[in-house]
Amino acid sequence: MKKNMSIAIDGPAGAGKSTIAKLFAKEAGYIYVDTGAMYRAIALFVIRSEADYEDEEKVSEIIKDIEVTIDYKDGVQVVYLNGEDVNAFIRTPEVSRVTSKIATYTATREKLLSLQRNLSVEKKVIMDGRDIGTNVLPDAFLKIYLTASSDARAERRYKELIEKGEECSFDEIKKDIEERDRQDMNRTIAPLKQADDAILVDSSDMGIDEVVKTLMDIYNSKV
Ligand code: DC
pTM for this structure? Predict the structure, then answer.
């Protein structure tokens, strides 16, 4: 059997998982899989349907027959919702909020679990999310729990928005991040937590290059 080379990278919102995983994937020849984007596509469907996203029963019913798939265009992951490329619509604050809620529902998680597991069978993947090391890929060859203080995460997000010329409040961003942490860490199914065999990387005082180098060093010490 082929050696399992999958890498799981979990952690709270804004810890830099996707930025780091993308750079690592390029350097180490991996395919980057963003599982949050798949949850976001389901949230977008719920928003568009105008159903009450807090109503678990209703949401479970309406998402039963939807299809979420991913593909790659020029090396970038594209998420399809019933065949439509929805990448441009899934990064709004509203989608973030609704995603965090609907990701607590069994029906949502069951819908995506086998898709995510199958991807790791077909390809050498670095997959980021909240429950990859604990639930989706428990046999991953390397597990990283990437975190940072809520202040550091809010500061990064604040700077990003200011650079884009968007008006925003640091306190609001921090509150939003802490609310998503609370929701992601306290749900009953597959909550965000560090897997027993995951390596903790706290990036609060680290730059992007330093985190990628840390990850590369850990990886190289294992291959
Ligand atoms: O990583 P992200 O910010 O795109 O994730 C959006 C939401 O999706 C996040 O609040 C938690 C949820 N999520 C999850 O529950 N499990 C995953 N594997 C990935 C994301």
Answer: 0.94
- The helix (run of H) or strand (run of E) holding residue 125 is strand 125-129
* CB 141 within 8 Å of CB 198: no
> 28: buried, middle or exposed (CB in 10 Å: 19+, 13-18, 0-12)?
middle
Name the residue with tokens 């937590």. 193
Residue 176 CA to residue 103 CA, distance in Å, equals: 16
Amino acid 194 reads Q
pLDDT < 50 regions, the chain: 1
What is the set of domains in the chain, with CATH numbers?
Answer: 3-215 (3.40.50.300)
Pairwise CA distance, residues 110 & 126, whole Å: 21
Nearest CA residue ID for atom 10, ligand 1: 100
Per-residue pLDDT, 131:
97
Q: What is the pLDDT of residue 1?
A: 38
Measured in Å, residue 35 CA sits from the centre of ligand 1 at: 7
* Ligand 1 contact, 35 CB (< 6 A): yes
Measured in Å, residue 213 CA sits from the centre of ligand 1 at: 25
